[in-house]
Amino acid sequence: MTGKATRIHLLSLGTPQMRAFHLTWMAFFVCFFAWFACAPLMPVLKGEFGLTPAQIANINIAAVAVTILVRLVIGPMCDRFGPRKTYTGLLALGALPVLGVAFAQSYETFLAFRLLIGAVGASFVITQYHTSVMFAPNVVGTANAAAAGWGNAGGGAAQALMPMLLGAVLMLGVDHTMGWRVALLVPGVLMLVMAVVYWCFTQDCPEGNYSDMRARGQAITGSGKGGGWESFRMASANYRVWLLFITYGACFGVEIFIHNIAATFYVDRFGLSLKAAGLAAGSFGLLALFARALGGWLSDKAARRRGLDARSTLLFVLILGEGLGLLWFAQAGNVTLAVIAMLLFGLFTHMACGATYALVPFIDRKALGGVAGIIGAGGNVGAVAAGFLLKGLGDLQQTLTVLGVLAALAALCAIAIRFSAEHKAQEQALYDSALAS
Asked: What is the pLDDT of residue 225?
């Protein structure tokens, strides 16, 4: 508990905890903006490269597939090297394929760069890790959810802003073929700028940077005796991790899938213009500005009144609501009902994501990086599975219906998460200590 913040002073940058909070959501925002920058331009890119429906499905799957592996690795890397070095490296290296996609000349090269861009989706794990080590149990759920939600809004911002950015470039006299390439350079440059800022103004934990702490012979809670690999091994042996792996696949996996198909869905099903479809799709992502934080805040409040098990119960309710809302969205007969349904199930989806990572810090404090990485990877497994489901069924409306049913069933995994009396007593003691502070 040494040095962890027991309050969120939202307008402050004067402490390491609040600098990490603000810069980690900003870095996450930039990464998600870059990750989904191509999605709202897919109707344009479809014509540019002459893409078939199967090729578009491959691109959507590639966009999230590699993130599974990188998320599994990135959590233990945070334990080993610290979130500051890990995030800076991801931002700098991840900018390369983001810039590279603007120079793609064929479907094959575009697919390859899109695959590599998926690595920046692992930024989420570092964000959750960094806030988890900076904030005490009484506010960590809110801190995790708010940082993730505001950063996650980068996906919604990309949906709304990339078509506008393309329009602005075209107004400057750039031809259409070159215009989308210029627009896609912007996210890559932003990532490089953010890498420098993150390196200069953050530290790994309240006590300092991991490398300095190890040099002083100071133990680092959460990294395990064997460093990153030990953290991963301990996490993978915990059944609660795999239940949350499934539930996160049901909420964040659906969220990513909607980001990738929403603009195309509105264009093809309701005949909206690219700009109107981008705004409609972007509203789903922008819910993250408050909905994730709301999920984490409700989880903290529930835990204060009824203990650790209340966090699992809340997650069950939220994922069930997501599944039912998704079924309504799939059956909506006009664009107005579709947008209303999307906002409703999107609210439950984002809140469920926030409630999931409000629970993550309490699963195993000795393997935080491994826990955060495995559960984070579950979100991308869900997105990849949804992509293959769409490819197999060949019908988007039918795919959304099946996903709604599966999400409702996945809620049962949340209610199955329980903790021993000893574990709950230990966590309650830490919680009471944080409140006393």
From this structure: 47
The answer to whether 112 touches 100, Cβ cutoff 8 Å, is no
Instruction: Tell me the fold of 16-206+219-432.
Output: Growth Hormone; Chain: A; (1.20.1250)
**16, 134 Cβ separation under 8 angstroms:** yes
| Tokens linked to 25 | 């959501």
Query: The tokens of 401 are what?
Result: 């219906």
Cα–Cα distance between 152 and 159 in angstroms, integer? Answer: 12
pLDDT at 87 over 90: yes
- What pLDDT does residue 44 have? 87
Q: What is the pLDDT of residues 147-204, one digit of tens each?
A: 998 998 888 888 889 999 999 999 998 988 899 999 999 999 999 999 999 999 999 9
Q: From residue 342, how far is each of 112, 378, 401 by CA, in Å?
A: 31, 22, 13
> How far apart are the C-alpha atoms of 291 and 349, rounded to whole Å?
9
Taking the C-alpha atoms of residue 11 and residue 16, their distance in angstroms, rounded to an integer, is: 13
Give the C-alpha separation, 213 to 196, whole Å.
23
- Find the angle CA(214)-CA(70)-CA(125) to the nearest 5 degrees: 65
Q: Which two tokens stand for residue 163?
A: 């078509």
Q: What is the value of pTM for the model shown?
A: 0.84
Distance between CA atoms of 236 and 371, rounded to whole angstroms? 8
Element (H, E) at 60: helix 53-81
pLDDT bracket for residue 222 (50, 70, 90): low
- CA distance linking residue 48 with residue 247, whole number of Å: 37
